[in-house]
Specification:
alpha+beta, six-stranded antiparallel sheet, about 35% helix, elongated
Length: about 290
């Protein structure tokens, strides 16, 4: 019996066949322990004859990324140091003016306190007449009257003659400008009305001024009247505006039909004296 014979099982050259699942001791002994086992014939297909030898794939060089450049400066940072200082000073000045205005308006509408007792004149000079606050909209008894401000003028013509114009209803003009306008200006809504309220609050029933603010309210109302007369084209070429007169027409709002309240609907007029027009009044208006 052959020493390499393992019984009745015939010997096969290929140890990977199902009939010989495990390699024999001779195969294990014949293998070089220092050499790593290579791929088997089953795992690596044989190259067809005549094929060119396989070559390793070439490696693609990866470019080294360049350092990112800093972002360009925008806005104030893009300005020079001198211009940056100028912008900073301008913003600081605006912030100071806004803070002072808010503080003055707050002191004007706040109850009487120590600050307003000592500096009430400075607060009034800042607020009146452009920034006066009026809270009548939230009063328990809102106004129930229609007040119209009207003006007429005396004009000296080129020939030296004098004439008096009719009454111009300035309040009606403002009303027509506001009606249908989704964004009416503050001037159209409040300038004329607040100037008349300012005059009434600083004058008695005989139109005599009360305190120093009375003269200020007269000058303010007179300049508005002169400016409006210039807009109405009441002056011909060469005419001179000599004086103006202002009056108010006050009428009660009729009560609703379901109310038993009885009020007079007859208008009440309040005529002021004739005011001579000075050079300061005509500056920037009719000149």
């Amino acid at each position: 019996m052959d020493a390499h014979d393992r019984g009745s099982t015939p010997r096969h050259d290929d140890p990977g066949t199902p009939s010989d699942p495990t390699p024999g001791p001779e195969t294990s002994a014949a293998a070089d322990p220092a050499e790593p086992p290579g791929p088997t014939a089953a795992s690596e297909p044989a190259e067809p004859p005549g094929s060119p030898p396989a070559t390793a794939p070439a490696r693609t060089a990866i470019p080294t990324p360049l350092p990112a450049s800093p972002d360009p400066r925008t806005g104030v940072a893009a300005l020079s140091l001198r211009h940056q200082i100028g912008v900073a000073l301008a913003l600081a000045l605006v912030a100071i003016v806004v803070c002072v205005h808010i503080g003055m308006v707050f002191l004007h509408v706040a109850p009487v306190n120590t600050v307003t007792r000592q500096h009430g004149g400075a607060v009034d000079d800042w607020v009146y007449p452009e920034f006066e606050q009026n809270w009548k909209l939230f009063a328990p008894n809102p106004l129930q009257q229609n007040v119209a401000v009207q003006v007429r003028a005396r004009i000296r013509g080129v020939d030296g003659g004098s004439r008096t114009t009719g009454w111009y209803d300035l309040s009606a003009q403002d009303g027509r400008a506001v009606d249908g306008n989704p964004l009416p200006s503050h001037t159209q809504q409040n300038e004329l009305r607040r100037s008349w309220d300012f005059f009434v609050a600083t004058h008695d029933a005989n139109n005599r001024p009360i305190g120093l603010r009375g003269s200020l309210s007269e000058a303010y109302l007179r300049r508005i009247a002169v400016l409006r007369m210039g807009r109405e084209d009441a002056l011909a070429r060469g005419d001179v505006l000599v004086s103006v007169q202002v009056r108010s027409r006050t009428s009660n709002v009729p009560p609703p039909k379901w109310s038993d309240e009885k009020v007079s609907v007859q208008p009440v007029f309040r005529e002021l004296s004739w005011w001579p027009v000075t050079a300061d009044d005509t500056e920037g208006s009719v000149r």
